[in-house]
Design goal:
disordered N terminus, D-Maltodextrin-Binding Protein, domain 2, 5-stranded mixed sheet, 6-stranded mixed sheet, alpha/beta
Length: 321
């Protein structure tokens, strides 16, 4: 009898595990937390992803913009959400940088979230007002050197790739300019167009439409070579400037306790979206390169970046303005 009971219990457990691995997902609408303002580059990326997920799940995917603290507010909201796979979040390089600059961050993206998939690489571009006398990054740098500390540069917030890139650009080229953090790149670009701020380094997704429309001028790409989205914009390497390579990335994460089976099903759908030619074309128009990595590899990327920027912030004294 004891042997039969053990056999029954074992069979029941095996059946439960099999059911968990094949459970229907999702069972209701999804929420995609985008930790930046509506209208920003990450918002455009998130909405494209939401459309792709909606097509595959036959469920509504609601984009929930939770801006603040360069993305940490949204990531903290994601960490608190129910761990059933119905709340997912767009995580990026920004959160690993600002986490290192914040004394008591509300979330640790490497410890409190579960990675699902690395999806994109995107590049950083140097921009100024359309009527600026500077025709490229070298000429802008000369303006800055001719009047030390007379100019200011903008970013979409402390710890964003734009802030990081601006600091690296100045430090590696012995330039001096004040940092003015805005609540998102939309406001920053408005002041650049008006001439209140000299320049900014922005991820391409934030400013692609404005550059193509002639509303702002692109002076150089902080990358080793040109990219397809901006074939006429030279790289810093071409201009003979130090190798200031600020390549950002983004992917999807979920609350830490989300079942591995759900994460795998979600990862499959995300891979299908990045492989879809129609969606890939839309992402490319934003200056994004699709670069799918599975959850284990994405987790390693997040761990590496958290450690990397913690070390950088400590060594350079980069601070919140």
């Amino acid at each position: 009898m004891r042997a039969l009971l053990a056999l029954f219990v074992g069979a029941a457990c095996a059946a439960a595990q099999a059911q968990d691995s094949t459970q229907v997902y999702p069972t209701r609408n999804l929420r995609l937390i985008v930790p930046f303002n509506a209208g920003a580059g990450p918002d455009a990326t998130g909405r494209q992803l939401a459309q792709g997920l909606s097509e595959r799940t036959k469920r509504n995917v609601i984009v929930d913009n939770r801006a603040g603290a360069s993305g940490l507010i949204g990531m903290a909201e994601l960490a608190r959400a129910n761990a059933d796979g119905h709340t997912i979040g767009l995580v990026s390089l920004s959160q690993t940088v600002i986490q290192a600059m914040t004394p008591n961050p509300p979330v640790n993206v490497a410890r409190d979230l579960a990675p699902v998939a690395h999806l994109f690489r995107q590049y950083t571009i140097l921009i100024t007002r359309p009527d600026s006398p500077a025709r490229n990054a070298r000429e802008l740098l000369q303006l800055i050197r001719d009047k030390p500390s007379a100019y200011a540069y903008a970013s979409g917030g402390n710890g964003t790739p734009a802030h990081l890139a601006g600091e690296l650009f100045l430090r590696m080229n012995k330039g001096q300019a004040r940092h003015i953090p805005y609540k998102g790149m939309t406001s920053a670009v408005t002041d650049i167009i008006r001439g209140d701020v000299l320049f900014a380094c922005s991820v391409t997704a934030n400013v692609a439409t404005l550059i193509h429309g002639g509303r702002i001028k692109a002076l150089g790409l902080l990358a080793p070579k040109r990219i397809a989205a901006f074939p006429d914009v030279p790289s810093f390497a071409e201009l003979g400037l130090p190798d200031v390579d600020v390549t950002s990335w983004s992917g999807i994460a979920v609350p830490l306790a989300t079942p591995i089976s759900v994460r795998r099903q979600l990862a499959v759908m995300l891979r299908e979206i990045t492989d879809d030619p129609v969606h890939a074309k839309s992402f490319a128009a934003l200056g994004l390169d699709t670069a799918y990595l599975p959850m284990e590899a994405f987790g390693a990327v997040i761990q590496f970046e958290v450690a990397r920027w913690a070390k950088f912030v400590k060594e350079t004294g980069l601070r919140i303005d």
